[in-house]
Design a protein that fits this description.
This protein has about 250 residues and is an alpha+beta fold. About 35% of the residues lie in helices and about 15% in strands. The chain is built from ten helices and twelve strands. It has helices spanning about 5, 25-35, 65, 80-85, 140-145, 155-165, 170-180, 185-195, 195-200, 205-210; strands at about 40-45, 50, 75, 95-100, 105-110, 110-115, 125, 135, 220, 230, 235-240, 250. The strands form four sheets. A four-stranded mixed β-sheet has the order 3-4-6-5. The chain has a four-stranded mixed β-sheet with strand order 9-11-10-12, covered by helices on one side. Strands 1-2 form a two-stranded antiparallel sheet. Strand 1 (about 40-45) and strand 2 (about 50) form a beta hairpin. The N and C termini lie far apart (about 75 Å). The relative contact order is 0.08.
Amino acid sequence: MDIYFELMQYPVFPANKLMEYYSSIRTARQVLTRLVQSGRVERIRKDLYTCISGETLDPVADRFQIASAITPTSYVTHHTAMEYHGITNQVYYDVYVASVTKFSPVYFQGYTYHYVSSRFADGIIEPVFGGGVKVTDLERTVIDCIKDFEKVGGLEELRDNLTSIQSLKEDLLLKYLNLYDNQFLYQKTGWLLQQENAHLKLSDDFFRICQERIGKSKRYLAKEHDKGLYNATWRLILPNNRNEEDYDATIQ
């Protein structure tokens, strides 16, 4: 038995995986050490490993599989989830990982895996042929990116991504909005998705519900702008480099 080829079945595995093949903990640890020293296995972080392909010399696990295994509750989120869903063709070296358990940044093969707090477990899917990937569905990905756009690429990148999406299930959008229960998120979501509704084709009822839950506060869309133009429909002060049709009045 060549343990390397046995381990190749698992994109990511913990050290105790070798105990399925050896009765002695000492032997299993020695074998793992030899595999790492030979370059056939590489350590991702404490107690997390992947095999290195003898053909490509690259890790067997991709960044989505690694992200899904960093902790028992981890899953791919935010713009990394956008990448997984094929919404953006750009490859980013910051990988966003939601988890119940907090972890320090993980650095592996040029990628940095960043911790994001997991607020709830709804909207996490495990694609049938994903090789162990856990990722937010498209609707939750959109809501998460709208919620945190300043942290994960900015407004223009988010709008580019939204332009590439052909349809969204509004019942799921409303479900995740309700779970976050945040007036500002309803404001941002209503305004942003309304800008893209020519191709998204969300119903008037969707925007009515969002508008009913925005409250009475006026808020800046982006924190770095201390003045801008006002959209009265969504009670948002928008950066003054937006198109004129986005605004209703000027706020100084």
